[in-house]
Amino acid sequence: MQGYGSRRPREAGGRTKTASKPVDTVRVLVVRYCRARIGRRSGTYEAADAIAKAGCREVFAGAAGASALLTFAYDVTRGLVDDFHRTTTELPNPLSGLPDRQREILVLRSLVGLSADDTALALGCTVQAVRLGQHRALTALRPTRA
User: Fold this and answer.
1) 95: phi > 0 → left, psi -120 to 50 → alpha, else beta; which?
2) H helices of the chain, where?
């Protein structure tokens, strides 16, 4: 992230020193979430990465007052991605037919790679609700037999 105004010092060989594990973890999850929800436009992740960059800035600016960083990061990033979707024409998405909660569970669990516990924390629900929502979403997406 040196090219995006990062003030982290560089190690020998051009690598950036890691400021902190939680910051890097949240940044990676925000980028994955944005790429999963927005996808490629014109063959690149440029729009998703721009939204992720803005999301990270807001997350880290407001993190001091947040009780759970993962929940706060999810709320901020979800809002930015939803704003993006409202202002652009939608491409067909197989997940768009799912209820919002089930779609979010699938994105966080399958595409972002969060555990059921972390997904429950981000969404503010129980682990059982995450597992049930994931099951229902996958059942709805499964092709029916003719």
Assistant:
1) alpha
2) 21-38, 46-62, 69-87, 100-106, 116-123, 127-141
